[in-house]
Amino acid sequence: MPGLIKAIEPFRFYTRLHLSELTGLRATNLSQLLSVIKQVPGACIYYHTHRFLQQHQYLSPEPPNDFAYWVSKILGEDELGEKLASIDTIQFSTVRSLRDKIIATIEDYLKNNMSANLRFAGEGEEFHFIKSVSFVLSTNYIAYDLREFVDIVKNITIDSIYFHIFESRLRLEKKTNDFSNWIETSIGDKKLSDKISKLDPYTHTLEDLRKTIIKIVEQKLRDS
Amino acid sequence: MANIEEYIPIVGRPIIDDLKLLAEKLKGRVIQHINSTAVGGGVAEILSRMVPLLKELEVDTRWDVIKGGEQFFEVTKKFHNALHGRPEEITQSDFDIFMETSQKNIEALDIHGDIVFVHDPQPIALIKKKAGNKWIWRCHIDVSNPNQRVWGFLENFITNYDSAVFSAPSFSQRLPIRQFLISPSIDPLSDKNKELPQETIDSVLRKYGIKKDKPIITQISRFDGLKDPIGVIEAYKQVKKYFDCQLILAGGGAADDPEGAQVLKEVMARSEHDKDIHVLLLPQDDIVVNALQRASDVIVQKSLKEGFGLTVAEALWKSKPVVASNVGGIPLQIKHKYSGLLCHSIDGASFAIKQFLANPEYAKKLGQNGREHIRNNFLITRHIREYMLLFLSLYHKEDVVYL
């Protein structure tokens, strides 16, 4: 293809596979939830704010985090549930700051709704804290230009897309997603890079996200 | 038996490529599974599919079985019930019998795995043979509310393992070792789950005298109080007032189980005056189970306790609308109103069945969502991947592991 820019550095696709580690920690009311959220490792906060994305990828473009789901469905605190569900995860660049926001949201609510603490989950409906353990592996897929890149994005696992978009940005604290970073620094296309980094990945299902990225890059290839 | 490449049309090539990548990281390690039976039961069923697939991926996997007499297995059955929270009288003599057989197995069994993977309580005492290798204890039982005496006895062994594995978050306990959540799985290519031609389904219905002239509600389970077949009949009777339907209660395993025989007798008594209730005491025949599930309009799993409840995954994989109790591993498989309906009572079960029968499009949508949920989370390929990650986790303690 004429005019196709060769990358300064090729893009190597990684994948991220994960195991769920049980902590044995549980909460039956809001105070306990708050107290455990403060002490668990960041890997727990990450798990409960991202699990739904991968496990229910076909269902909902706005996956609720586990805290929001439990607070509304089990404790019946719909208002707090809504506040927790609408925390704009993309605005946070570290798990620490995301945790702080969750804590502040629950504390604020408890200040104004003291009776909320009197609601307890029934037997078998407790909140169980789980930790995400990630295994990052290099795949055999490497892209040297945008055409190869988009062809691989079409076929790579959803876990790989997930890793480069969500995990590397928030959990590995890289500030932006890996795709945008490569397109800007190795292809030199800041405009295309920005188009991808401006997507709010939390408002798409993972398959939608894949399709959207493919569409943006293919449009660029057609235009150039 | 299917080979690994045959799963590509179902889960996609990249998923299988990931398995091959992980398998490479386990080169040179020997994995030794140990359980109490080579045939029958969920553990043997999963291992008999998984061991050949791991071998095909070139992960050196072996499978050994402990030996035990009648008395030993009576004791372990009591342990099993007690761990499920049922009242059981456990005596010192039970613990002595358990230890006596365990000691014989400790002496007889050759432990050669770099990773020794012990399933359920029966072989748990083998940990006494731990040397420089890694040991995992896999609990397939619902231990959310265990008998403390039995759990305390087992805990002495568990704490010497490197890691433990449970099937649902509510089963986890405060333990000084790492514990992981790994759900069991179904094999989409096994006789129980593979696609069947319509003529096979029809011939199974003919064989059991079931006509397709009214909606079929089915529960597939052994006849056991914990599966609440009487509750299912009650729910069906409530539904029957509004919808002319029929009920299939099908399962096996009662012949050699005195408790099961009693439950079956009660089920027969409750259903004898209703020709639309079909109570089928089945031989071990996976094609029959598969056909009955596929012939059903609604599938029910109204258990009072569940280790995991793989019959739910089997039904969802067949895109069936499922009504199931909110116990054990079932809520992991059904997200209420997304991939099925959860219930807590007989009334709740009958209400949910009525919702499905009255709204076939809704039922169809939830069934389809259910199939996708199973494809993403509960097929054997995911299970193999997590077991390989579990093996690798024994050599890495960090939360983000670069392989």
Task: Please characterize this protein's 3D structure.
Chain A has 224 residues and is α+β, with helices and mostly antiparallel strands. Chain A is 53% helix and 15% strand. Chain A contains 10 helices and 2 strands, in the order E-H-H-H-H-H-E-H-H-H-H-H. With 403 residues, chain B is of the alpha/beta class. Chain B has 2 domains: 4-185 and 380-393, 3-Layer(aba) Sandwich (Rossmann fold); 198-377, Rossmann fold, CATH 3.40.50.2000. Chain B is built from 15 helices and 13 strands. Chain B has a 6-stranded parallel sheet with strand order 2-1-3-4-5-6, with helices on one face. Chain B has a 6-stranded parallel sheet with strand order 9-8-7-10-11-12, with helices on both faces. Chain B is globular, with a radius of gyration of 22 Å. The mean pLDDT of chain B is 93. Chains A and B meet through strand 1, helix 2, strand 2 and helix 7 of A and helix 2, strand 6, helix 14, helix 15 and strand 13 of B.
